[in-house]
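Aim 2 progress update. The chain analyzed this quarter is reproduced below.
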Amino acid sequence: MNLEGKVAIVTGASRGIGRQIAIQLARSGARVVVNYAANEAKALEVTEVIRQSGGEAVAIRGDVAIVREVEALFAGAMEAFGQVDILINNAGIMECVPLAEVTEELYDRHFAVNVKGTYFACQQAMKFMGAGGTIINFSTSVSGAMLPTYSVYAATKGAVEQLTRQLAKEFGPKDIVINCIAPGQVSTELFLSGKSPELVDSFRRMNAFGRLGEPEDIANAVELLVSDRSRWITGQTLRVNGGFN
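Predicted structure tokens:
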């Protein structure tokens, strides 16, 4: 993929899927804004990997759950690179809790990060992104499996999918495409946290290939959707899950 001359913001890019996306977009020629909420050291590691490979990257802190920090993220991107062409709304949280144990705080935090963060980042993209821009939001393939304890997380991702559909015709007149990627189970710290080896093994058996996805599998799909060959695809959700459901 040739992304020369493009500038990409990747939220939640200090680790996991976001980290791999940032590295691969830079490898394809994009200048990358590595967003992080708390772990500056990890974010700087990502920028260093990119720079050692000949790319350009900056790390900008910002909690996407706070609108003024989303605004500051875009302002920082414009100051660093003068444009924004690609937005990857990767930042998200997931805590699997039975319905009876869900607190108001847990509920509000999930919707603030996963939905509110995505929504207001899209709003900033509407202000700063020009023709030929691309937005990728993140959902989950878990929503189709009706797994217990995932109710809050899956609800936020259902909202993101609907948001993606709704915004497609608002972005279309500006020649900006917006799509959603719904990964299956991916071997990341976020997914593996709190899960027993037996549970993880059961997830491996749920897809067609008998393995967990890797961050590269998702980053490859992102590269496909931000390429110029995908300009006629918008408002869609691509389930990148190895045949999970």
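The chain has a mean pLDDT of 95. The domain at 7-240 is CATH 3.40.50.720 (Rossmann fold). These observations will guide the mutagenesis experiments scheduled for the next reporting period.
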